[in-house]
Amino acid sequence: MAEGAPQGRPVIRDALLAGVPHGFFTGIGFEGPPAADLLVPGGQLVRLRQVHSARALPVTAPFAPGEEPEADALVTATPGLVLGVVTADCAPVLLADSVAGVVGAAHAGWRGAFGGVLEATLAAMETLGAERGRIRAAIGPTIAQASYEVDAGFRQRLLDAAPANAAFFAPGARADHFQFDLPAYVRARLEAAGVGRVADTALDTYADSARFHSFRRATHRGEPTYGRQFSLIGR
């Protein structure tokens, strides 16, 4: 369940991660990367060059500017680090095992989720002492099914991988088109991988232009597509 943003701070927190420094920052009104110490006093922000991969990296220190590796998830057990991913329709997923003191942040678009980025994130967290049954995962603002039309080829690719994926598609308004439920797909991958508890903020980036950037909305409107929002979690 999403909690409202504190006045003056464009950030959304999920009750499932209560007690863990985290935030899904809105894109509108907060165009630059949020300061890590908004979450952790004196915290250091760690970022990646995101490429829609299934690569998840354990980290113990920030990367030098311009030397960020290509990957789509970060995990850490190092106090003072704040992990950050950026999205604009893809699913940001923040994860924590508070007993082990391990946190993770993943960028899960359909390619990354389909390719295994969530499972890779869990495996990386396990190398630091996390246990899947203790991990809590919150899915941040993401394009919703009602806003995400795909063609028959997209649907068939997921059905070829697993016929049960048909559950994530609804008929579209046009022939041979379907509405894809990305957050439900992400949730199902997390649950199938053994995550103890999963929450979805249920906020649609496409529909909520007052708060969120959306790559698809900008494309449909012929607007610039460079806007993104940050999602952060810290130790």
The 3D shape can be described as globular
**How confident is the prediction overall: mean pLDDT?**
93
The low-confidence parts are 4-9
Under the CATH scheme, the architecture is 4-Layer Sandwich
Any idea how many domains?
Answer: 1
- For the biggest β-sheet, the strand order reads 1-2-3-15-7-4
Total strand segments: 15
CATH class descriptor: Alpha Beta
Oligomeric category: single chain
Strand content: 25-35%
The SS-based structural class is: alpha+beta
Number of continuous helical runs: 5
Task: From the alpha carbons, calculate the radius of gyration and give it in angstroms.
Answer: 17 Å
Q: List the secondary-structure elements in sequence, H or E.
A: EEEEEEEEEHHEEHEEHEHE
The CATH topology: CNF1/YfiH-like putative cysteine hydrolases
